[in-house]
Every structure is written in structure tokens, then in C-alpha cells.
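New to this. Please check this fold:
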Amino acid sequence: MIRKLLITSALIILLLLIVVTNGQYDKDKPPPFEPEQKPERLGGRISPGEVKLHEISLDRADLIAFNLSWGSGEVDLAIITPEGTRVDSAFASKNDLIEYASVDIPEDDEFLGGYRYKAFGFSQSSLQGTWTVEVIADSNNIEETSYGVGTSLRGPDVILKTHIDKYFYRSGDFVLVIASLERKSLPLLGASVMARVFRMDTLIEKMNLYDDGTHGDSVSGDGRYTGTFINTSHSSAYSMKVYANQTGQQTFSREGRLLQFSVWDSQSKFDGSIVETAEDTNNDNLFNELKFDIGLDIAKEGKYHINGSLVDYNKARITNTRVETVLTTGNHTVGLAFDGSRIYTSGIDGPYILDKYSCFEIFKDSFSLVDLVEDDYQTQAYGYREFQRDPIYYTGNSSYAVNDKNGDGLYESITVYIEFDIIEENYYNYSAGLYDNDWKHVCLARDNEHLKPGIVTISLTFSGTEIRRSGKDGPYVISDFMMYCENGTSITLTDNITTDYYQSSDFKGK
């Protein structure tokens, strides 16, 4: 129960938002506190009428916030500043530099229904030193309750950043943990840094991190503290938190973000081989799919699910694919085929990257990770227009113009321009309708043209004489566009083009 209260960082951030916005939470504004800049959380159990004190040494920051979370009964929170001033809700209400908030979580909340929270926010950036947190349980409470105390800093001098080298490991692999410490953008040296490792919710190890160039980091004295977790013999989900502190005149403490990773013990694995092929299955000189034949070494016969993502150079996703198949013991090649039309639709030229492809073994009611490859495989330098598309493809680009050729202030016509990607050279016929703002028909435009393959822009012109004669005012809507080729291919657009406001009298009549 105590751990449940201590790990609710999202709700703590929500409470801090409420504090610094005078009780008004705005989801569209960024969090005012950096979530990773937190001293270590405290907590315990408190009996009716009991007062518990917690001391915490804080470094300089632009804003400091304290929060209390608890379960049943009435529990109050007060803060004693390094100067000795005791701050409770009444004191905060009279001080413009201190904010106070209290929040009750609804009973029907799935995770923390019924829990309650109180918080103070201080904007006196000079108040660094030892703070005291008072937790006061009402004497009329029926039973003891669990509680947690958290602290968050915004704009501190000291910044802690933590990460691990990857998120999935095989049984027996080593996990490299890295913590970077800076004070005013310079490496922070001489800190005490350690990590706590949990398997599921059970603490299994505490390990020290070092900035000596011998524990996974080749450079000593650079503010990068590293360590290696080696106890990965059990296939399970793991989590880890890094804690850093320093005493003396430069005192500070930090608790890093939650790091999560998984360990699996499957003996099956990808063998490292990949063969890339762009395939034109219908002989139209366009690639229907981009295929990767991937080698697998299977240790146990079963049903397997293999998936992967195709991304661009900036890791923006283009498309995904997957395959399920039964594999016997031994070496196999499984093809991951990415739809060429989706590559074309992305409008992104290669080279592309096969990103994080994985294999799972499928059971009746569950599945288990077999292997995951996080190294990127880069393809050849394809152009997106080399891949399959419709014979007449609308690129999404369109515009219109009103035409006053003689400059007399009256328009002769409205012309619409629409862009297509054409596969076959041939004659094409196209038409569209012009409607007023109430979808009443104004006039029709049609034309035909001999088009060559590639990106083409066709135009249709609506007569100003017919617009004026209709007596219908805009804004006008250009709709019902149809285009067809003599070979039988066609396209109908669902997109409409709406003009600015024009009156029918703005157009020239005869």
C-alpha cells in the first residue's frame, strides 16, 4: 500500500498543476514542474492523533512543491521552511508566494479511488536548505492509514537524467544503467548515486553507480554515473529507479524516473540474416511490396508471430506489417512484406529503415517474446513514386482562382486546379459542378486532355456568365469531380473546394 502511494507520479504532477494554477487544471498547458527532478519520496503509516516529521534537504530551484497523499481518515500537512517558518493552509492563504491545494480522488477511480491529496507550492527560489514536513493525523480517525510525501522542483540548478541501454534483454544479459548529473549545465562530480531494482513489485537489489570510467563508461569525472545489473536469470518484468544525493554546502537529492525493462529466456532467436527485395507482382513497373526475408533459428516447434515497422530516416512511421506461421525446430526464413501502396501514400523517399522487428511465440491464451532486434536495417535509396498506386491518384493538392483578364473589376470565370499522379499516357475526360452555399447547382465545367505519366495538374473553368445568370451568391463549392480514362480507369473525388465569398453580380455577364 505504501509503495502504491509512492509511485503515483502522474497524479502528483496533476496536483502540482492545480497548485500553481490556483486550482484550475489546464490539460493544454505543459506541466510546470519537470517530472524527473524530484528528491526521494518518503512515506509510512500514521496512527490517529500522531504527528510524523520528515526532514529533506533541497537545493535551489525556481519553484518547490510538496505533496501529501493518504487513504482513510483526516490527515493534514504543514511545512517548516529552512528559516523556521511553519506554513499551513491558513498561512498560505495570506501569502502570495505560497499556493495550497487539496484534492479528493473519486471513489470510482480505477487505480486510486478514495485517496486524497494536499500540496503546497513555494516560489521563493532562495529558500534552499533543510525543510521539515509535518504529517498530522486527526485524533478522531478510526484506524491508522498509509501516506506518502513527495517533492518536486522546477528550474533547479541540479538536473538528473537516467536511462538504460535498451528495454529488452535475454536471460543472462547485463543491463547498463546510466545517470547523468549536471549543476548549472556543468558535470556534477562527487555525488552518491545508487539504483534500486525491482522484479515485478519486489525489491531484489541495490547497486551503486560510479563515475570512474570502469563501470560501463570509458571516461571518469564526466558526470556520468554508470553501473551494471547482472541478476537477469529470471524471465520477468523489471523496474528500476536511480537515486542521487550530495551533502555539505552543495546538498541535493534526486529520484530518477521509473525505468522499465523485460528479460526473457527463449532459446529461439533471429540469426542476423536479412535479404531485401522490392517486388513488382503485376508487371506494371511499380513495386507492389518491399519484402525482407529474415532468418530465424527456432529451438521449439510452435506458432510464431513476427512483426516489424518501416520508418523514414527521422523514425517517422510509414507502415507496419506482421505474419503468423507455424515453425518447426531448425533454421527458417520468414518474409515481412510491406505494402507498396502505403509507401507511396506516405510521400517519403528512401532509404527506409526496418525498425525494431520482433518475434513472439503464440500460445492458446497468451504469448511470449522470443527475440527483438533494435538495430536498424537501412534499405536502398528508393523513391516513393517507384511503389504501387492507383492508375489515377489524387495527390491532395488543389487550388482555385477568379479571373479578371481586362481589369474591369468583373470576373470572367472561376478556374480550379487539381493535381494527380498518372500512370498511363492516354486521353482523360474530367468534370465538376459548382454549387452555392446552400448546395444549389450553379453550373457545370468539363474538359478533356491528353496526359503523360507523372505528376500533372488539370484545370476546369466555370463560366462567369453562367454564375451571374444563376443569381446565386457564394461562397461557392466545387464538388462532384470525376475523371476517367479511355482505358476504363476512373476516379471520383470526395474532397470539396470552397471559394471565398463572392456575389453573382461580381461576375461578367453577356
Summary: The CA atoms of residues 82 and 127 lie 7 Å apart. The mean pLDDT is 86.
